[in-house]
Amino acid sequence: MSLKLYLHPLASYCWKVLVALYENETPFESIVVDLGNPSERAALANIWPFAKFPVLRDDARNQVIAESTIIIEYLAQHYPGRAALMPNDPDLARDTRLYDRVFDLYVHGPMQAIVADRLRPPDAKDPYGVEQARATLVTAYDLIERHMVKSRFAVGDAFTMADCAASPALYYANRVHPFGEERPNTAAYLARLMERPAFRRVLKEAEPYFAMFPE
Predict the structure, then answer these.
(1) Which of 16, 122, 179, 201 could crosslink 68 through cysteines, CB 3.0-4.6 Å?
(2) pTM of this structure
(3) Are strands 3-7 and 63-66 parallel, antiparallel or unpaired?
């Protein structure tokens, strides 16, 4: 099989790429990496020196592609499917990239900061950093709430790369800092994302690992 995706089923940025692959039923081989295993970590670092996933290896084109957004754009270019995750229209493509960044930088990033703090030993906690992360999430939630008044998905009515980014970001963010009853549009948007077979499949595959998530 040409495409190999190095991942962990619990890792949120891996979910983003998995949703894209499953939306288009793109064939690939899943290679689960345990970063706590020195040999597996070294093997990943041999492919991508930063030893962070997801990483896509395309044997047919002799390419290694890292970073979730870049992977999805690569797939849209070289392995297109029924879902045009990157619109052809330049304006829609720009909006897709914008909301991909919104979900990655202002939802995904702060969520991960909160989760990382929960994993730290008691003498290494960063309450100020967590407070800042929560404030950023509130700002992002309010933006998304206003935006979703007029949109079914992140960019109009079509499912795009931005929704691939939104799926794990909003799912995990709502667990660490709930949207609240005052954001029904955001909650309804996440519910629509969770109804999609691709995201349901991702969640199902992650179930055996959910006990590792720090509540």
Answers:
(1) 16
(2) 0.95
(3) unpaired
Tokens (6 digits) for 89: 């229209």
What's residue 215's pLDDT?
80
Nearest CA among 64, 81, 79 for reference residue 6? 64
Nearest to 12 by CA among 179, 204, 215, 203: 203
| Per-residue pLDDT band at 37 (split at 50, 70, 90) | very high
Write out pLDDT tens, residues 106-152.
999 999 999 999 999 999 999 999 999 999 999 999 999 999 998 89
Bond from prior residue into 90 cis (ω within 30 degrees of 0): no
Residues in contact with 114: Cβ distance below 8 Å, sequence separation at least 6, in sequence order: 130, 133, 134, 176, 177
Residue ranges and CATH numbers for the domains of the chain are: 3-78 (3.40.30.10), 90-196 (1.20.1050.10)
Tokens 């304006």 found at: 91
